[in-house]
Amino acid sequence: MQLKSCINLPVLTAYVCHNNVVMTRKLIKTGNSDALVITKEMKEHLGVRESIAVYYEKGKIILERPTTFEEAKELSLERFSDAYERLAE
């Protein structure tokens, strides 16, 4: 993810980093909340359809494609294969 090169700017308007380009996106009022519209291009870039993973860091909100079950399984095997082997003994 290329967020490291983006500029942290105040929010009333959202500043979105996409391919190292900062885009200004207006927030839309939705009831008592504000919404950020995710464009078709942004969805295609993230590889998402209906849901998106949202992470909060100091001064940032990060949007990512959710991890699939297969990806999570592979990560788990990479990190904990030794522990799994010991448990199986």
Kindly describe this structure.
The protein is α+β, with helices and mostly antiparallel strands and 89 residues long. The chain contains two helices and six strands; from the N terminus they run ββββαββα. The protein has one domain: Pemi-like Protein 1, Chain: D. Helices cover 30% and strands 31% of the residues. Strands 1-2 form a two-stranded antiparallel sheet. Strands 3-4 form a two-stranded antiparallel sheet. A two-stranded antiparallel ribbon has the order 5-6. A hairpin with a 2-residue loop joins β3 (28-30) and β4 (33-35). The longest helix has 20 residues, at 69-88. It is elongated and about 55 Å long. The termini are far apart. Mean pLDDT is 76; it is low at 1-12.
Please describe the topology of this protein.
Layout: E1 13-18, E2 21-26, E3 28-30, E4 33-35, H1 40-46, E5 53-57, E6 60-64, H2 69-88
Antiparallel strand pairs: 1-2, 3-4, 5-6
Main features:
Pemi-like Protein 1, Chain: D; 89 residues; disordered N terminus; alpha+beta; two-stranded antiparallel sheet; elongated
The residue ranges in which pLDDT falls below 50 over 5 or more consecutive positions are 1-12
Task: Output the number of helix runs.
Answer: 2
Number of E-state strands: 6
* H and E string: EEEEHEEH
Number of domains: 1
The share of residues in extended strands comes to: 25-35%
> Can you tell me the overall shape?
elongated
Look at the structure and give the mean pLDDT. Answer: 76
What is the correct CATH architecture? Answer: Ribbon
Structural class: alpha+beta
